[in-house]
Amino acid sequence: MTKPFNHVAIIGLGLIGGSIGLATQAALPEARVTAFDASEDVRDRARQIGLAHEIMDTPAAAVDGADLVVLCVPVRAMGEAAAALKGALKPDAIISDVGSCKASVAEAITAALPGQTVIPAHPVAGTEHSGPDAGFAELFRNRWCILTPADDAPAAAVGQLSDFWAAMGARVEIMEAKHHDLVLAVTSHVPHLIAYTIVGTASDLEDVTRGEVIKYSAGGFRDFTRIAASDPTMWRDVFLSNKEAVLEVLQRFSEDLSALQRAIRWGDGDTLFDRFTETRAVRRSIIEEGQDDARPDFGRRDHSGAAKDQPPKN
Amino acid sequence: MTKPFNHVAIIGLGLIGGSIGLATQAALPEARVTAFDASEDVRDRARQIGLAHEIMDTPAAAVDGADLVVLCVPVRAMGEAAAALKGALKPDAIISDVGSCKASVAEAITAALPGQTVIPAHPVAGTEHSGPDAGFAELFRNRWCILTPADDAPAAAVGQLSDFWAAMGARVEIMEAKHHDLVLAVTSHVPHLIAYTIVGTASDLEDVTRGEVIKYSAGGFRDFTRIAASDPTMWRDVFLSNKEAVLEVLQRFSEDLSALQRAIRWGDGDTLFDRFTETRAVRRSIIEEGQDDARPDFGRRDHSGAAKDQPPKN
Ligand SMILES: NC(=O)c1ccc[n+]([C@@H]2O[C@H](COP(=O)([O-])OP(=O)(O)OC[C@H]3O[C@@H](n4cnc5c(N)ncnc54)[C@H](OP(=O)(O)O)[C@@H]3O)[C@@H](O)[C@H]2O)c1
Ligand SMILES: NC(=O)c1ccc[n+]([C@@H]2O[C@H](COP(=O)([O-])OP(=O)(O)OC[C@H]3O[C@@H](n4cnc5c(N)ncnc54)[C@H](OP(=O)(O)O)[C@@H]3O)[C@@H](O)[C@H]2O)c1
């Protein structure tokens, strides 16, 4: 067990920063938690709901004396947020972040804060909500947090940050930044792009009204709308920052979709059946991994509220 | 209020047929419910869990004396299931079904049972599970059920079937079969095809292991795996039976995806931001319509079970 951090500073108090603030206060009661957000409204709200012990009006004041600084701003704001800390940091403070892309973020932070120890991280946990009211202390429990330290990162610092995330309830994994970006392109970035696309396509059809799309969404579409309700700024930044991996996975997806399209066109039921059978195995593994639960519909069985308390069937 | 059915027969006792059996027994205690399924195992199981008052060993015995027969088999088995009832039906029995496509199913049933009153229907409700154990009586509550009667269908029969579905808890809508097939292509069929595709793409990548895909699925991918765990037979049939509308919507989707792909390639953040902003409105409307709930993550906030009983935040 490494030495826990005495003072954690959080920059950006949205869903992720707010959740870290709450989780740190709950899990590390000895640690002081300070924070800053660029928006005055967010700072006010954060004070009301206690996302940190103290919310400062400048980034420099927030990181003063901190051992760990976690940047929780949109991916393309990381460089600027880091630059604002220059001169205000303890020399041995560890700088980390929670950005959804790692290679570009690591580069931006390192360039803005030369000489400082930078250990990028990405907690793979989230909801479609954002802002200071969206956070909750349990967000990271049983979720993975991926650390992408550079080859020359000090092992002690990596160990300290791993323990911090373990204290948040997360399971920690170490990975190369570039590999992280490819894995997340598949498991998160491209799924989001596809969801945004199909929701847009549905809204734009001439022969089907938007009212009809909304009414009959229970057939599968509503899951896509949930994903496509995620924050536009965050996701614009993700796609621009992880361009290469996203485009590579998209290319593969388009080829695979064409193959199924062809099977439909030519009435090739066997190809469809085989493909649909393969994908079930993936679902089973995810449930076994504990990354989801097997209740059909995730409790949406409470179609009228009445069935809410029934035990899961599977 | 029309005369309720005295005797309802169900052919096919999977998720939908089983749910109708349970819901009818609960909502219409005066009605007799009989049923048949092609599989002996399913019939045995259905008897154990009481999906109907009596489970018969032949289709003819199941529909003997019934006023309403509901076919609940895969879309491309509808014609055969209907043909098996020939000669066993009361002349004034109403034949309905629950198939996910309507034009092709209406044609198959009408051809198999000339002279019989056929009123096709589609309850827009489901889960990714199938089989006799998947059913539950509340499945249709507050969900839409779309009836697609032919122009010359007797109004009294349409009214009786509407009341039946209202008794199941559903909200009933009347629509042309062809229009139904286009609407559902958008809200259900194409989303399923896309989900099957991306889960397949992810499983096949060389540089990302399947274990990694599964571990980091919480980033968005797991919602797709749930959809892609749906029954392969059912979905093969849907795509083959609603080919035209599915291919039309797929074409539009591919064009829209290409546009976003181009925006990423050229770093056009404004196009991405605008598109992502538009899609949020659709989500809000679905929640207002009551077709989903606003809790982030649908109760998956119980990352460790502990937060399970917290009230929704939004
Ligand atoms: N949401 C998820 O599911 C998820 C999951 C894992 C990781 N992440 C990553 O976590 C980071 C934050 O995401 P989030 O969902 O928490 O976003 P969020 O709820 O929108 O919060 C971001 C906050 O940062 C503030 N901010 C922006 N630029 C700033 C700056 N230069 N200095 C200080 N504050 C600044 C924003 O203020 P304004 O409102 O004034 O812009 C906003 O309050 C992103 O990098 C994202 O990629 C998100
Ligand atoms: N699942 C959904 O989300 C959903 C939603 C709305 C509508 N639907 C529609 O509802 C229908 C049934 O779907 P489901 O999910 O309930 O499927 P399911 O759980 O797979 O049940 C279908 C049952 O029908 C049996 N069957 C097949 N051919 C038959 C025949 N000729 N005669 C008698 N029984 C036969 C099957 O037996 P075997 O196992 O021996 O094949 C099986 O037990 C499909 O048309 C589907 O499009 C489904």
TrEMBL record, chains A, B:
Q: Does the keyword Coiled coil apply?
A: no
> Hey, what's the signal peptide range on this chain?
none
Query: GO biological process annotations for this chain's record?
Result: tyrosine biosynthetic process
**Which reaction(s) are listed as its catalytic activity?**
prephenate + NAD(+) = 3-(4-hydroxyphenyl)pyruvate + CO2 + NADH
Q: What is its EC number?
A: 1.3.1.12
SUPFAM superfamilies in UniProt: 6-phosphogluconate dehydrogenase C-terminal domain-like, NAD(P)-binding Rossmann-fold domains
Q: Which residue range or ranges hold the Prephenate/arogenate dehydrogenase domain? A: 6-294
> What InterPro entries does the record point to?
6-PGluconate_DH-like_C_sf (IPR008927), NAD(P)-bd_dom_sf (IPR036291), PDH_C (IPR046825), PDH_N (IPR046826), Preph/Arog_dehydrog (IPR050812), Prephen_DH (IPR003099)
Which Pfam families does this UniProt record tie to the protein? PDH_C, PDH_N
Q: Which GO terms fall under molecular function for this chain's record?
A: NAD+ binding; prephenate dehydrogenase (NAD+) activity; prephenate dehydrogenase (NADP+) activity
Top enzyme class: oxidoreductase
Disordered as annotated region, ranges:
287-314
Q: Which UniProt keywords apply?
A: Amino-acid biosynthesis, Aromatic amino acid biosynthesis, NAD, Oxidoreductase, Tyrosine biosynthesis
Q: In which pathway does it act?
A: Amino-acid biosynthesis; L-tyrosine biosynthesis; (4-hydroxyphenyl)pyruvate from prephenate (NAD(+) route): step 1/1
Regarding protein family, the annotation reads: Belongs to the prephenate/arogenate dehydrogenase family.
Report the protein name in the record: prephenate dehydrogenase
